[in-house]
Amino acid sequence: MSEILRLDAVSRHFSGLKALSGVTLRIDKGEVLGLIGPNGAGKTTLVNAVSGVTPASSGKITFMGRDITGIKTYQAARLGLARTFQIVQPFAEFTALDNVAAAALFSQPGESLKSAREEARAHLAFVGLEAQAGQSAATLTLAMRKRLELAKALAMKPKLLFLDEVNAGLNSAEVERATQLIHQLAASGITIVMIEHLMKVVLNVCTRIAVLHNGVLIADGPPREIIKNPAVVDAYLGHQYAQRNAAHG
Ligand SMILES: Nc1ncnc2c1ncn2[C@@H]1O[C@H](COP(=O)(O)OP(=O)(O)OP(=O)(O)O)[C@@H](O)[C@H]1O
User: Fold this and answer.
1) What ipTM describes this predicted complex?
2) How many helices (H) and strands (E) would you count in the chain?
3) 108 pLDDT higher than 90
4) Which residue's alpha carbon is at the smallest distance from atom 11 of ligand 1?
């Protein structure tokens, strides 16, 4: 497989706090990488560093062979790096359709509003929000706003898509539906990095798992190995989880 993203010794400090410490990680095209770890481990900070929201303090980030360290968010979007946010933040007064059209225009500013809206309609249909196209984003349920967030990210035509806790706060039927969408996205060839606390989802969709703890990458490998890794069990999964898992083979 060929490399799409590479982090070399990436660190991010907030005053004295080391949110990310010397993270080196390679992601290949077509992978679905699960990024896991306890609260405050540095997962969102890593995604923010790559997508230009909060630049790295040091280290190097390479996307499709190009040095993108310190890139701005709009530049990242135009290169094909898109993300959803943990706290969904649509333009509340805009319709669902125009939220997605705005995302399309953000990544391709030359596009006409008419074609951005046509494109937006297709993305809304993909995430199952066709019927809500004309509704203002403020009136959508949390699950719908999460799917809207996904449609916005897709409107940026990503090559690499970061999903930041797209399942948080959803019920099991909604998680099931979101999981199917992630499978479809992966099948369409988009490389995915997902921050996810639900291990059931991680194990269902991820081809590889990277684990952060206190800003340090403590493990990186195939899901079946990661869930047995003693450092990961200690830092995140817990011994009960490991025992339950071992009992289920
Ligand atoms: N803008 C900021 N200013 C100061 N500290 C920050 C900032 N952003 C993150 N941090 C701190 O950096 C550390 C890593 O935070 P981060 O949000 O990356 O963790 P996370 O693994 O995504 O956690 P969670 O699972 O709770 O979302 C935390 O201690 C957090 O408080």
Assistant:
1) 0.97
2) 10, 10
3) no
4) 19
**Distance from residue 44's CA to the centre of ligand 1 (Å):** 7
Helical H segments across the chain, by residue range:
43-51, 73-79, 96-107, 113-126, 142-154, 172-187, 199-205, 223-226, 230-232, 239-247
Q: Does domain 1-80+158-220 have CATH number 3.40.50.300?
A: yes
Indicate if ligand 1 lies below 6 Å from the C-beta of 15.
Answer: no
Q: Where are the domains of the chain?
A: 1-80+158-220, 90-144
Per the DSSP assignment, residues forming a β-bridge with 163 are: 194
Tell me the Cα Rg of the chain.
18
Calpha distance 114→136 (Å, rounded) = 19
Helix or strand or coil: residue 109? coil
Q: Is the CB of 37 under 6 A from ligand 1?
A: yes
